[in-house]
Model the fold of this input.
Amino acid sequence: MTLALAEIRTIATTPFPDQRPGTSGLRKKTKVFQQPHYLANFVQSIFSSLDGFEGKTLVVGGDGRFFNREAIQIVIRMAAANGFGEILVGRGGILSTPAASALIRAEKAFGGIVLSASHNPGGPDADFGIKYNISNGGPAPEKITEAIFAHSKTIESYRIVEAPDVDLDALGETRVGEAKVRIVDPVAVYQSLMETLFDFPAIAQMFRDGFTMKFDAMSAVTGPYAKAILEGSLGAAPGSVLNGEPLPDFGHHHPDPNLVHARHLYDLAMSDAAPDLCAASDGDGDRNLVIGRGQFVTPSDSLAIIAANAHLAPGYKGGIAGVARSMPTSRAADRVAEKLKIGLYETPTGWKFFGNLLDAGKVTICGEESAGAGSNHVREKDGLWAILMWLNILAARKQSVKDIVRAHWAAFGRNYYSRHDYEEIASEGADALIDGLRAKLPGLAGKNFGALTVEAADDFAYADPVDGSVSKNQGIRVLFADGSRIVYRLSGTGTAGATLRVYIERFEPDPAKHDIETQAALADLIAIAGEIAEIRRHTGRDTPSVIT
Ligand code: G1P
Ligand code: ZN
Done:
């Protein structure tokens, strides 16, 4: 075959009106993506929004879900047609989101395309997604995602090379049009990076001394990474990794490591047969779940505990520069930052807001209440990183997860915290609820609800301290005089109807009161949250669909 003669074709197309990227890229039902031209229109809109990539490298990979391989073939041929010089693809089309970020950085690539709908289910009747990451390895900032959306509304054609499919399973190089395509080991770069950050010998010794764990890869992307790192390098017992083969439909499961979809791990951790650590990650490997024997760790607490203990890991031994958390994430990390006398940044929901802070060296550790934690090692949240960090802390402190959590609460106080999700409610009701809250905002301060007084209420806006950009309407906050908080926002990642998220938090300094069941500890605030937003009236629901 005379590959150099491969033909670049310009295909006429018409715009789709619904290609605005959400909290984390474009997510739709798989069938929407499978429509002729749908994916290609979006990919062309990405390339048309970028400048200066001719001859440069693009990283491409995904979480292995249904349509991943087909989508990757389209992306490769379009990247070649648009002028990229080299396309790096994870073998089998596999790259976890954090591994894609690590590869972009290690290879000094121009950017990357990640095919994933994260923790949403996969399959022909489930979800698919695509997002673009910039050269720092992080999600494209709003300026770029808005440009992509603008292009998608006026697109008339896209460019694609006429070429046979690339064999995604064979490591090595090939050509598509003028571009070099390199199929790489999806794990190697990521694994070496982890070895530079954590004390692998100490963790391996802890496993030799009898430490036990179960990590559930949920038949999603992290299986190969966890097997290589946990069972391979660190010597965790064979079988420590559950569901370690990535499957296109995630084994019919919902690859979200929360207390609903990973209930079996929670039950195991609370049972007599509990290993020392139960952990899991989501579809694309950026979320984490950490449960010690008899002790669930909320993601907000996990962020605070990681920030307080990061210096125990070799990669962070000089201390951390600062911590960032998304606004709805509990304020447990704020107390750690205060003690360490380092900066604390409160950003809108979504990892893309951490990129500037990390690039500017203002923060080292970031986290979100939605099971995301990470650091300046990449520009995405990183599920296995968080679990390795916990293993490193456990190996260094030689205490159980439960003892570490309880000692943390005793030292810093406990932020009781819960999120109530009302999924797939009608969009009209959801919008009316938020509009209603906005209308009430000016009158809320000073109002009493039972024993609680509202101190302030606003619609969160964020001014990025690095580039000055302002993001408005990022969630309604009701702040009480005693430090309690209720936050309301609509999900930006759903693919059906609207999802209302209500975040509820109360601070309790007294260690004698650290044993209350979370929903009971928050009961009055939960009732107030329903009353202020008139949740029942607007959603028609009496109870949330998911409580985390
Ligand atoms: C959700 C989480 C958010 C996270 C995002 C991507 O977004 O709440 O913290 O960054 O998924 O994993 P949402 O659906 O709330 O917009
Ligand atoms: Zn994810």
In short: The mean pLDDT is 96. The domain at 2-186 is CATH 3.40.120.10 (Alpha-D-Glucose-1,6-Bisphosphate; Chain A, domain 3). The two ends are 55 Å apart (CA to CA). Residues 440 and 532 are 9 Å apart (CA to CA).
